[in-house]
Amino acid sequence: MIASGEFRQAMGRFATGVTVVTTQQDDGTITGLTANAFSALSLDPPLILVCVGYNAGSYAVLRQAERFVVHILAADQTEVARCFASSGADKASCGQWQVSARGNPVLEGCLAVIECRRSAEHEGGDHAILIGAVEATSFPADDAAPLTYYRGQLNALGRIDGGAVAGAGK
Predict the structure, then answer these.
(1) Does residue 109 belong to any structural domain of this protein?
(2) Which residues, 6 or more positions from 8, have their beta carbon under 8 angstroms from its beta carbon?
(3) C-alpha 66: how far from its chain's center?
(4) pTM of the entire structure?
């Protein structure tokens, strides 16, 4: 078996987008976490998956939630990503929020928002694989640059203009 540190180092070389996954508790409290283990799973029906560590503070709430929201972060949302990555933070203070037509708390300024009904959960080593049936999407800041994660760092990817990445080839 490969050592976990070596595996982490190898996976760190795979650039990913950055998401914040949220839900609302019965008392109205917003809870969630920053996740880069996120993917489309199926187009028909529309399904996504997100991997949540069993030791994550919000895992128990997300596991019981009927619905959750995946927010794909824009480059200017680094502080939001850090806030949701920290334990004990008041997640509602991590950004500006609106309530969607489905009653979900939606973070403003994201590239995309994906509202889901929890469909299934599977074991995946030290993480749970949560499957979400996509109920709605929106694109509040679809012309902004994305926030990425690479080698342990949050980074901005150049804004895409006319099919080319701005600043590419320099």
Answers:
(1) yes
(2) none
(3) 17
(4) 0.87
How many structural domains is the chain composed of? Answer: 1
Any domain includes 10:
no
Q: Check residue 104 and report its DSSP letter.
A: -
Helical H segments across the chain, by residue range: 4-11, 59-64, 78-85
- For residue 137, the cross-strand partners are 114
Q: What is the CATH number of the domain that holds 106?
A: 2.30.110.10
Is the separation of the CB atoms in 111 and 146 below 8 Å?
Answer: yes
Asked, for residue 8, whether it belongs to a domain, the answer is: no
Confirm if 33 and 70 have CB atoms less than 8 A apart.
Answer: no
Q: Which domain holds residue 91?
A: 15-165
5 domain-assigned: no
pLDDT tens series, the chain, 170 aa: 889 889 888 877 778 899 999 999 888 889 999 999 999 999 999 999 999 999 998 999 999 999 999 999 999 999 999 999 988 778 888 899 998 999 898 999 999 999 999 999 999 999 999 999 999 999 987 678 999 888 888 888 765 565 544 444 43
